[in-house]
Write a structure and sequence with these properties.
The chain has eleven helices and no strands. The protein has helices at about 15-25, 35-45, 55-65, 70-75, 75-90, 100-110, 145-155, 165-185, 190-205, 210-230, 240-255.
Length: about 280
């Protein structure tokens, strides 16, 4: 007689839970958000086994039934709810290597925050990047999103990691991460969704992820993806995966590369001596 299926529950390992929360709270920084002290208190209660993720989400909904002007200005509801949802996803079974998984993650993270949660954008977008002196990465045209991502996912699915050297593994992961991010398929939350999807994918493949990297270097992670996807060939500037590869070496292999945002500044686009205003 076969054994019955068991319900997948939250981990009771406090160190693992703390790492999920560290990544979840740190990733809000990529959009200039900071979870509140209240969220940190709820996270501590979850780590200690006193509150479940579901209970935390209920408490946050109650907390933000009435938002203050400060809440709205600082986007506290988004920062807290998305952080809680990231921690929950990281503490759950993974997702299959499909475009629908990326959409599902975005929908779960941003439901009740954006009315376009889980939906690919239907317009073209751009964003001023400080490390490029206000220039933007050229994101995928919205009419090509499905086809582009289908190609990227199929290419990844049809390649094996078996027998690859660590260097080649890192290059493959960096390239796949960069491709997803360059598409920028959603109106908001692309970096956070890409990071969560990739961590789920890496965990499914048996990699051990050092979540302190997302806790301490989430802005570097985003800036590294900017540099991986920006080119100005007329002026001799090409894309480079060097920085996202260094991040991944620290993330997955215990590397000790020094990760500084100022090193990612595209100096050719700045007037010499000008204050670039880039965080360390």
């Amino acid at each position: 007689m076969s054994e019955e299926y068991q319900i997948y529950g939250e981990t009771i390992n406090k160190a693992e839970k703390k790492s999920y929360w560290d990544a979840a709270k740190g990733l809000q920084q990529v959009d200039g958000l900071k979870p509140t002290k209240y969220l940190s208190e709820l996270a501590d209660a979850n780590i200690d086994g006193e509150l479940s993720y579901g209970q935390i989400e209920d408490l946050l909904y109650k907390r933000y039934e009435t938002e203050t002007n400060e809440d709205i200005q600082n986007r506290n509801k988004e920062a807290d709810l998305v952080a809680a949802r990231i921690a929950h996803i990281l503490d759950s079974p993974g997702y299959p290597l499909k475009i629908t998984s990326l959409k599902a993650i975005h929908k779960e993270l941003f439901k009740d925050i954006y009315d376009h949660a889980g939906q690919f954008r239907k317009v073209n977008i751009y964003k001023s990047e400080p490390i490029l002196n206000g220039e933007t990465v050229k994101y995928t045209n919205y009419t090509a999103l499905e086809d582009t991502l289908e190609y990227d996912f199929d290419t990844e699915k049809n390649k094996s990691y078996a027998g690859l050297t660590e260097e080649k593994v890192i290059r493959r992961i960096a390239s796949f991460t960069s491709s997803i991010w360059q598409a920028h398929p959603f109106m908001e939350g692309n970096t956070r969704s890409t990071a969560v999807f990739m961590e789920c994918y890496l965990n499914n493949m048996g990699f051990s992820v050092d979540n302190t990297m997302f806790k301490d270097y989430s802005q570097y992670f985003r800036n590294a993806l900017v540099r991986a996807n920006f080119a100005d060939y007329k002026n001799g500037i090409t894309e480079t995966n060097q920085y996202i590869e260094n991040f991944n070496k620290n993330l997955l292999l215990g590397g000790e590369f020094q990760l500084r945002n100022r090193d990612l500044i595209l100096k050719e686009r700045f007037t010499p001596g000008r204050d670039r205003g880039i965080e360390r």
